[in-house]
Structures are given as C-alpha cells and as structure tokens.
Design brief:
183 residues, mainly alpha, 78% helix, globular
C-alpha cells in the first residue's frame, strides 16, 4: 500500500477491525502468551499491509491465519511454548461436507489431498523460507510477481527463479506421494 489513498487505508483498517481478534486468538492458541500473541497479530498485519492492494479480499482472512500460525511455529522452533489446536475439527468438517451433499468417501479423499498439500508446503518451508513465501504468495494468494519483486527488493527474474526451484523441489520430493494418493 505504498503511496495508498485514504480509501485504501480505510479498507485496511476495516480488515484489521474485522480480523484482529481472530488472528490474536489463533496466535494465542499456539503460544499461550497474550503479549506474544499480540506481537504475532501485529506482525501478520504488517506483512498484510505490504501486499494489501494486490491481494484478493476474499483470501485475506485465510492468508492472515496461515501467517499467524507460521509465526507461532517459528517461535516454537526458537524454544517458545506451543499448543496445537485446529479451529474446525475434522468431525465438524465431515458434518459440513455431508450437509453440502457430499459423501464421507469424497471428504476423506479431499482431506488426504489437503493433508499432503500442507505437508508438502511445510516441507518446502523448512527447505527454503523464501521459496515457500513466494510460492504461497503467487500460487495461493494470487499476488502479482512484480509486486512481490518490488516488495522484497529483488528482480522479477529472481522471483521466477525461486518459483521454479520451489516447484522443482516439490516435484522431486512429493511426486510419488501425490501419485499414490490418486491411484
């Protein structure tokens, strides 16, 4: 939001008011420290501010939650306290899927695919944080590559190189698991 208008600032403030409590709760559920959760929430919104004008509004909440969880995991790796919870239990997801007219087998197949996807993304994150961040921003959130290059102070070709390496790494390390899932 560099050089943003008053309208963009109002939109950002509205998003903050809509989601800051949720993001603080997510962070707190992982670190069990009120002040640390506040810091995580603040950092998540600072990162959002960087991409706000190019991020699809319908993806903001999910993106903030992912960022908050990742920040909490980073703290855990550095020795902080951590308790894993999930916002929506698997049972609630099954019930929601059944209400939508889908059967449990389809739900389980999608759950396996989601689990593999999360595992692959976490593996990529552990391999190279930059690759992970850029892949998620481009492929999951839809931020333009040029915007990412500018925000990170790197060239567009560097962004493309990170994407290429990330996808190649994922293919090498998770292709067999993906094929096994869909046999």
């Amino acid at each position: 939001m560099n050089g943003s208008s008053n309208e963009e600032e109002r939109e950002f403030r509205k998003v903050y008011m809509d989601y800051h409590k949720i993001i603080c709760k997510v962070a707190y559920s992982h670190v069990r420290d009120y002040y640390l959760a506040q810091d995580i929430c603040q950092e998540a919104f600072l990162r959002l501010h960087q991409y706000f004008d190019s991020m699809p509004k319908e993806k903001i909440k999910a993106w903030l939650i992912v960022v908050a969880v990742n920040l909490a995991r980073d703290i855990r790796k550095k020795g902080g306290q951590y308790t894993e919870i999930v916002g929506l239990s698997d049972w609630e997801r099954v019930k929601n899927e059944e209400r939508a007219g889908n059967n449990v087998e389809e739900f389980l197949e999608r759950a396996d695919a989601r689990s593999l996807c999360l595992e692959a993304l976490e593996g990529l994150r552990e391999k190279n944080e930059k690759w992970y961040e850029i892949l998620v921003l481009v492929e999951c959130v839809g931020v333009p590559r040029k915007k990412i290059a500018k925000a990170h102070g790197i060239s567009l070709s560097t962004v493309d190189g990170y994407l290429k390496r990330a996808k190649a790494w994922l293919k090498v390390n998770y292709k067999d698991m993906y094929q096994d899932l869909y046999k």
